Amino acid sequence: MSRPTLSHPGLPRVIGHRGAARHAPENTLAGLEAAARLGVTWVEFDVMLTQDGHPVLLHDDSLARTTGLARLLCDTPLAEARRLDAGAWFGPAFAGQGIPTLEETFAALARLGLGANIEIKPAPGFVAETARATVETTLRAWPARLPPPLFSSFEIGALEVAQDLAPDLARGYLVEELPPDWQATAERLDCVSVHPWTKPLTRPQVAALKAAGYLVAVYTVNEGARARELLAWGADSIITDDPPAIGL
Ligand code: G3P
Ligand code: MG
Q1: Band of residue 10 on the pLDDT scale cut at 50, 70, 90
Q2: Structural domains present in the chain
Q3: Which residues line ligand 1 (CB under 6 A)?
């Protein structure tokens, strides 16, 4: 096995998850603003396609949990998705927060000075389309004054599209449990980082990831003791809903 070849300036110790999901509605501009206010320098968010192929920020396939509309985003055109309220479910102070487009998100990141881990989150059956639209929008509209973004995905096919269309933009291999062949996969996709789920992650696994030359960004860590343990094991980055609670 060889070490990763793509260079990356590194990742911050703390990345706000879906913005700062304990403090403001996930995947909204208010969430990005909350993250910046809390002193975070990078955020993670999820990108999915509308029916008419526009990349927007949403985590679930369905709009139900965050907007109250029981319909899939992939069945909903952008114009309709934009009329929905994605903030009221979280609290009355956030009523009126919409589902942001990826381009609006980039403009907000530029205004707030935030870097980004862009998670490509395709609905079933839309892996290549989602990756293509996300990467093309990033190549066109990523603010030049921000540090280069990092794409991540649970979908190998999405990372392959990113590698094909934007070989020089960093990629992170997102997993729940580390599969036995993780190193071959990360190497084939020329990833700079691996993003494992905190729950099953062990000290020897972090050591193996670091020995192989990868940045390690662990999600989703909302307790300070666990965050400190992971950093002591050698993890580079903690992806958290609650930056103040982890106290880094
Ligand atoms: O990118 C880290 C994390 O967001 C992956 O899980 O389901 O919260 O998108 P999920
Ligand atoms: Mg995510």
Answers
A1: confident
A2: 14-62+102-246 (3.20.20.190)
A3: 17, 44, 46, 59, 119, 152, 174, 195, 219-220, 239
